[in-house]
Amino acid sequence: MEISQMVFWTIFLISAVVGSDESERYTTCAPEKHCVPYDLCYDGISVDGNFYPDRSRTLLDEQHCHYMEKCCNITEPLPDTRIYKYNDSMMTLQHCGSRLDLWLHLRPLGYKKREAKFAEFPWLVAIYRANGYLCSGALITPHAVLTAAHCVQNDAASDLHLVAGEWDAAVQLEPLTHQERAVADLVLHPNYTQSPSGHNIALLLLHPESPFELAPHVQVICLPPPQFIYNFSQCYVAGWRRADFNGNETLPKRSPLFVLPRDQCASKLRLAILGRRYALNDTLLCTGGDKDDFVCGDMGAIPLMCPLPGSDDRFMLAGLLARATRCDAPQLLGIYSNIKFYRRWIDHKLRERDLDIRQYML
Ligand SMILES: *[C@@H]1O[C@H](CO)[C@@H](O)[C@H](O)[C@H]1NC(C)=O
Ligand SMILES: *[C@@H]1O[C@H](CO)[C@@H](O)[C@H](O)[C@H]1NC(C)=O
Ligand SMILES: *[C@@H]1O[C@H](CO)[C@@H](O)[C@H](O)[C@H]1NC(C)=O
Ligand SMILES: *[C@@H]1O[C@H](CO)[C@@H](O)[C@H](O)[C@H]1NC(C)=O
Ligand SMILES: *[C@@H]1O[C@H](CO)[C@@H](O)[C@H](O)[C@H]1NC(C)=O
Ligand SMILES: *[C@@H]1O[C@H](CO)[C@@H](O)[C@H](O)[C@H]1NC(C)=O
Question: Is 193 in the same domain as 145?
Fold first, then answer.
């Protein structure tokens, strides 16, 4: 089934007028120069009426400014209607799982592809409770986030809140601001078992009147239909780690992984964890890939995202981390709740509440 959703944006980010009175707001980095967000700096190029800020950094920027800022001369007020706009083609997103190359791909200093870039996975949602970050989830409609049940099982919906469009959780200097929402309804899978982990999946629903607003950095990811066959292609996991909070920068990590064929998954699970008599049904899927601190680290909840067949830049949610990743063998073994197995349950829970499920359909 092909449902085209046309989402048109008219996004005109009208950057603040930075006059000399406002320069006091910003740290001085050199005579007549201040550390300002890139978009407020004159340096850049205009192509077809679009202004692209210069994101290169000089030694001066690095010594004095945050990595999302540039050392810039803002003595002369910027033209008062300086409009930083996305043109029509950039404003049109037709499908779930799509993303825009915004030219906004900020990256931290010393970037080694271990961190996700700004808006690289625009459906990635940070889940918090009052005393801090819990785990990550994926936005499947403007009203609904999917995550692992083990992440939220001890909390009431009213204790949880969600942040979409977030990137560096330590600061608020991103070119587009994040969105924060309360959780109205927490739906654990009715057959969820903690140990051994089974049916490890939960839905977090927003208040009907305050959904997330889709934007270049806030998008929904597609869900696979129940009969979908994953083609072992290059997939990614991404999310924030609890250990990274309270530092200078708190960026989502990312790792490439691949999905193991079903028979290999069954034999590895039998050998590694679940015992000889274990018969794999489709509730779990396995991943392989290189070990790193992120995938082998503490077990929050992270989404496993795979490209759609025939497209390397449109994604579906294949899994949610269900058990601690095994990193004691030469290759890692990741164990994920298999989202396609839960597709009917998810559809049912949303339909029960009169929520539109077309957004995540292929
Ligand atoms: C900053 O801009 C003002 C106004 O254009 C100019 O007079 C001044 O020389 C510039 N200062 C530096 C350090 O470039
Ligand atoms: C919009 O921007 C894209 C990418 O920069 C460019 O390829 C396209 O030609 C632009 N379209 C219009 C109508 O300006
Ligand atoms: C939970 O398990 C029961 C018993 O096996 C089964 O009948 C029911 O369909 C399951 N619920 C879901 C949502 O899968
Ligand atoms: C799976 O991938 C292989 C090679 O990349 C390709 O030849 C094949 O057609 C794909 N199968 C499906 C069902 O997409
Ligand atoms: C945090 O920033 C301060 C000041 O820039 C720096 O001295 C310190 O080393 C940074 N800490 C970390 C963990 O990067
Ligand atoms: C799938 O397998 C697991 C583990 O053996 C079992 O707990 C679960 O009930 C099975 N589910 C279905 C729907 O067969």
Answer: yes
Query: Hey, which residues does 181 pair with through a beta bridge?
Result: 162
Confidence (pLDDT) at 109: 61
Shared domain check, 179 and 201 = yes
Does ligand 5 come within 6 angstroms of the Cβ of 247?
A: yes
Please tell me the predicted confidence (pLDDT) of residue 315.
95
Cα 349–355–361 angle (5° rounding)?
Answer: 85
Residues in the chain: 362
- The total of other beta-carbon atoms located within 10 Å of residue 147's CB is 29
Angle at CA of residue 210, ends 92 and 149, nearest 5°: 95
Residues of the domain holding 67: 28-73
CA torsion through residues 257, 258, 259, 260, sign: negative
Helix (H, G, I), strand (E, B) or coil at 257: strand
Query: Greatest CA separation found in the chain?
Result: 74
The CB density around residue 310, as the number of other CB atoms within 10 Å, is: 7
CB-based burial, 230-255: b 16+ in 10 Å, e otherwise = beeeebbbbbbbeebeeeebbbbbbb
Ligand index nearest the alpha carbon of residue 277: 6
Q: What letter would DSSP give residue 271?
A: I
Q: Are 306 and 287 in contact, with CB atoms under 8 Å apart?
A: no
Residue 237 β-bridge partners: 255, 304
Q: Tell me the CATH number at 299.
A: 2.40.10.10
Q: Compute the distance between CA of residue 50 and CA of residue 14 in angstroms, rounded to an integer.
A: 13
Q: Ligand 2 mean position to 98 CA, how many Å? A: 17
Neighbours of 11 (CB within 10 A): 13
Do residues 199 and 247 share a domain? Answer: no
191 and 273 in a common domain: no
199 and 183 assigned to the same domain: yes
Q: List ligand 2's pocket residues with C-beta within 6 A.
A: 48, 87-90
Residues with pLDDT less than 50, the chain = 1-20, 79-91
Cα 143 to chain centroid, rounded: 16
| Residue reference for tokens 């999946």 | 201
Looking at residue 89, its pLDDT comes to: 47
- In this structure, the answer to whether residues 243 and 330 fall within a common structural domain is yes
Number of domains in the chain: 3
From 191, 282, 352, give the residue whose CB has the most ligand 3 atoms within 8 Å, as the site to mutate.
191
